[in-house]
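Researcher: Predict the fold of soluble epoxide hydrolase.
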Amino acid sequence: MAAAEAQGGGAAAAGEEEGAIRHRTVTANGIAMHVAESGPESGRAVLFLHGFPELWYSWRHQMAHLAARGYRCVAPDLRGYGGTEAPADVASYTAFHVVGDAVALLDALAIHKVFVVGHDWGAIIAWYLCLFRPDRVTALVNTSVAFMRHVFIRAGAGAVKTTDYFNQAYGPTYYICRFQEPGVAEKEFAPAHARHLMTRILSDRFSERAAGKETTENATVEAAALPAWLTEADIDYFATAFEKTGFTGAINYYRNMDRNWELAAPWADAKVMVPTKFIAGDGDLTYHYAGIQDYLHKGGLKADVPLLEELVVVPGAGHFIQQERAQEVSDHIYDFIAKF
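Model: Structure tokens for soluble epoxide hydrolase follow.
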């Protein structure tokens, strides 16, 4: 049976104000996972899944918002990130592994069903979780990355491997393509560059313009002023974590995209049968993938996710929408899950 133990003094904060963050280490699916929690343990649970290159910390605003409304908020660092164990084997970062982590974490915390909130890679994992184990999910709020069957699942005679799709669409310099070769991405994403990388990536908002460029380009240039939603303390939190761990674990998710595509083949014609709300910024790279806007707005997403109840596009918002538009996204999440 999975075990949970307190890390530092975090668990002692359980009796403090509901918005306070409690930290613990949970043994789940064979790895040690760092988990941040807030809100009453008796409350209905919300599982937050972060993206690249982020941490549980990306959900700090939403956790405070929902904890104050009586929800139990659970936000792990995903495997390979932050305080969670980072297996050395690249093949240990498949969707099966990460969905397994989520399910085992729920078991360790004695949570049967949750609301799931995902962003970026966390959104991809959330889509897979809802496909593989819908019995554990009450409802889903996903952000940034839509359900893209042809990218996530090998389906149909003309199926194109995920990395081939991105190479054909955007060329070999596209970040997903660059990330495939071990060593190349690690040179670009060296731990010593963590502060510059996090400043630039978050400030660029992961726009279509920024994503194709070498991220360490002009690394010695003084950073411009941070956007209003981002503080030096926020950069410190992310940078300190990645200076310690490096980025290899995080990048290994990309190195399993083709493997995930194959592993998910049994779900080739499956629907996501979970009540869902999807939120994206109109400045997000992912909102400008070829054909994605027609897919979202002309019935494609609804066909794949029949219980899709709401589709929200936030004008002017970029990729890191839960941080950029913290209050707006928090309200959207609460308004949706409060119905269940």
